[in-house]
């Protein structure tokens, strides 16, 4: 509690008003006068009500206010009054008069702070609005009165300069949530507001991207994570000036505070802003909550309302009893979590790398199950895989093994489990070729073990294993029973200087391993694709309509297609997901290794995320990002560049291509990031080729910055109102897409909002917010995010890969992130009854 060093003496008010004399004169309106009479008026003019002592709390009912809803607007200021005050009063009055019959309220406005020492007056007020200027406007008694009002359950709305009020009060700083940088917000500018909360009454009716002119304040300390932010201003759309907050610049927020409800908006700095219908809609929703006319969740974006709990222990020495080398998870409807180990063992176990040895690369792909009822882990089954060669260079290490898992949509009835893996038994050591396959197994309900003899191979295809890498592995279902399978490009990361993987020369016994045109860019090859098939009861599959090819296309020279291909042109898609509400496919894939763009060869490494609404070509190895082309290279000298690829008319002219030459046009991707930042873009010449000069780059996604980079697609959250769960994530996250990265340094770990109108053609996110403290990073946190999915309990389950590569270690673990913020406020029994 702050005690002022002196009692402020208010000058007498002008006749007929309650505003102190000496303020800038202006036309007064009858509705702006405080309607006080008798004893109440005497209390305002003579000091604190009987019984109130300096700096002590008032005796107020809990909650204050009543069915005759009243809003008190306080306009006190220590300096010159803003011309926005009259406009604000008028706007709030019209808001109160124009709402539905059950959501109307009356207003009273005053500049006299003595109202906060009048318990009888405050007892009838549903919400207090601070439409104030800067400065110390409350003495100790008055601040104590405001504090008492909030603690009793009162509502508070602060607008713009209200954040500059009471600068010496820690309690008031907490009430407001943040303090502005001195000098910020001096001039009005048109900017874009990102409306991230689509459920709050103050924002649910606003556009995703709201163009609004106002005075924009910068914050001395960013309140995100400590308050529930409902809207942010995009700094790239105006000049933020000194103290800019960057990509995360909150502008409106709310939270339950000290017994009451507090909403603040940094907007409302100009008279004109109050005339805008969208801003009045924003204020209306805030006032409906602070007056107790409606409920709202102002807790969901507060970091401390989430708990991250490690579910699995460290493995016993030499035994993967808890977890293998983490590579994917899926949840069953009964709450069990099935998760897989790729095939690497702990670092103490030897690996065989000699191709002359029959056991080269032999490992165990393990399927573990966590049961939330018993909190125990069991080993459901294991496969002998090719995928345990450890680390080393491109010609030693391998990313094959047990790569993906999915449960049949009717798993509870049939026990079917689908596994995407590379069996060691089908390894050709002479040609250094292997077979990748998707097989269906059956879980024995009596033993809770997978019957390994029940295998039915749905789909298989050849992969070269002479050189690492890019196996992919993720799988997902849509609502029509179609199974999507993410397959890496089976191409080396080297031999192209980290740019397009299009070197046709390196090969082993005639099979190219550095030319992704053989795989990802090849219409007749299943690698570098996202496949879509419809598994049938007998263990076979059919092809759904709407894939990229039918499998019957041919061209002169014998080029063909595969009908299983839904998406081509992806590099290493470790994770994919399908939003069950829309059947939209989401995917992320890892980019190449170039650390910077090249004016000769093209863009730097771009890790990528995409919203895929229809069958498409996503570009690799011809184009990346928002259709940024690479340079072609070919024999006889692949070190010399040829022409730039045409993203709208790509041609596969590789000598290693056995598919069509003319490919589908490239669709731009939604999220791409390099070590220099998120969404790099460059000026383009008349042929559409970017300059690729770092000095000319602009960044469309400033909330992203790469480094090690390994994109890990996450789910779209869908809130289930019918689900009875104390730990489920709140509705605030409904419809938001979770994007992350294996690494936890500066890489993404965000929830993003897409615009459905533009997402299918490469539209960038309209909003993104960090999850780095909710899905915690750093030592003791989830440092290497391998997979993440929501369970049937509404909690988020996360696999931490561990701290090594191609092994499991003590940090390899399954985690669960749960919500503990509780229900919306105010409580249902405290709503105003009209």
List the helices and strands and how they pair.
Blueprint: H1 38-46, E1 70-74, H2 84-98, E2 106-110, H3 119-122, E3 127-130, H4 140-151, E4 155-159, H5 170-176, E5 188-194, E6 209-215, E7 228-234, E8 250-257, E9 260-265, H6 277-290, E10 306-310, E11 326-331, E12 337-341, E13 362-371, E14 376-386, E15 402-407, H7 411-414, E16 416-421, E17 433-444, E18 449-464, E19 472-477, E20 483-487, E21 507-508, E22 511-512, E23 529-535, E24 541-542, E25 565-568, E26 575-579, E27 584-589, E28 607-612, E29 616-617, E30 623-624, E31 628-629, E32 671-674, E33 677-678, E34 680-681, E35 698-699, E36 711-716, E37 737-741, E38 749-753, E39 767-770, E40 785-790, E41 796-800, E42 813-819
Parallel strand pairs: 1-2, 1-3, 3-4, 4-9, 25-29
Antiparallel strand pairs: 5-6, 5-7, 7-8, 8-9, 10-42, 11-12, 12-13, 13-14, 15-16, 16-17, 17-18, 19-20, 20-23, 21-22, 23-24, 23-25, 26-27, 27-28, 28-32, 30-31, 32-33, 34-35, 36-37, 37-38, 38-39, 40-41, 41-42
Helix pairs in contact: 2-6
Q: What is the makeup of the main sheet?
A: 9 strands, mixed
* CATH topology (fold) name of the domain at 30-180 and 257-298: Rossmann fold
Counted beta strands: 42
**What is the level 1 CATH name of the domain at 30-180 and 257-298?**
Alpha Beta
Top keywords for this entry?
Rossmann fold, 834 residues, mainly beta, nine-stranded mixed sheet, 42 strands, six-stranded mixed sheet
Descriptive account of the structure:
The protein is built from seven helices and 42 strands. It is mostly beta strands and 834 residues long. It has a domain of 193 residues: Rossmann fold (3-Layer(aba) Sandwich). The chain has a nine-stranded mixed β-sheet, sandwiched between helices. Strands 19, 20, 23, 24, 25 and 29 form a six-stranded mixed β-sheet that branches. The longest helix is centred in the N-terminal third of the chain and has 15 residues.
